[in-house]
Amino acid sequence: MHHVDSSDDPEIIVEDRRWRGVVPAVERLVRRACAASLRGRTPGGAPLAPPESIVLSSDRVVKRLNDRHRGRNKPTNVLTFEPPAPGLPGGEIILAFETVCREAQAARKPVAEHLAHLIAHGILHLGGHDHHQAGEARRMEMEETRVLATLGVPNPWKPRI
């Protein structure tokens, strides 16, 4: 078994314990999704850096952060924060329990699969990937699909019937 240097592992904080009731072994899933995502590259070709922390939180907390930092007074599925000093690796990923569960249910997919997708999405964002323009969005979606395939998660961009 290949052992990854634990200093590269993000701190996983389960702030809302409901995550544990919905996603079995949630910390293990988060670590696997993070490791799979970090095999990718930034748009410029550099290795992706691990986030400093991944926080499994709630809509209430994410709504407050989204309002304070983005001027949007509503919850969202995942927020990413760059580190304060430029050039330092890391950053932070925060996920909202209720929104992630609601989206997974609407898409008829397990919460664990949606969570893995959002972790990949967050890590790619921290690495400089974006989805504001069609070409960028397509590249980011392809990278997310590649990451999830290594975890045995189906393409998140194909609707489930």
Automatic annotation (TrEMBL):
Keywords: Cytoplasm, Endonuclease, Hydrolase, Metal-binding, Nuclease, Ribosome biogenesis, rRNA processing, Zinc. SUPFAM superfamilies: Metalloproteases ('zincins'), catalytic domain (SSF55486). The keyword Chaperone does not apply. InterPro entries: MetalPrtase_cat_dom_sf_prd (IPR023091), YbeY (IPR002036). Its main location: cytoplasm. One of its GO terms (cellular component) is cytoplasm. Gene3D superfamilies: Metalloproteases ('zincins'), catalytic domain (3.40.390.30). GO terms for biological process: rRNA processing. It comes from the Bacteria. Its cofactor is Zn(2+). The keyword Membrane does not apply. Its EC number is 3.1.-.-. Zn(2+) binds at residues 121, 125, 131. Transmembrane segments: none annotated. It is found in: Cytoplasm. Pfam families: YbeY. One of its GO terms (molecular function) is RNA endonuclease activity. Binds 1 zinc ion. It is an enzyme of class 3 (hydrolase). HAMAP family: Endoribonucl_YbeY (MF_00009). Single strand-specific metallo-endoribonuclease involved in late-stage 70S ribosome quality control and in maturation of the 3' terminus of the 16S rRNA. Belongs to the endoribonuclease YbeY family. This is Endoribonuclease YbeY. It comes from Acetobacter estunensis.
